[in-house]
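Service request form, structural biology core

Requester: graduate student, group of Dr. S.
Request type: structure prediction, single chain
Budget code: on file
Notes: please return the result as structure tokens.

Sequence provided:
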Amino acid sequence: MPALTPEQRALRARLAAYTSWANTPDPSARTAPARAASLARFEDPSIADPVERERRAMYARKAHFARLALKSAEARRRKKAS
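Core staff response, request fulfilled:
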């Protein structure tokens, strides 16, 4: 089998991903562990009260994405200026 070009590999990977998602009966259940892990990284396990821990995690997550948005806006502004 001849070596594939990067474009061919990307196309083959895209085809596999589409096929996999087409055969997934419950996409939400499939991605639930990843979502839970993503949210868990904002939780502080030293906070005993689960309600307070969740509240703080929610704001830590909001701050994280606001920080990303700010960096993105700054990068676009720098790119436009150059």
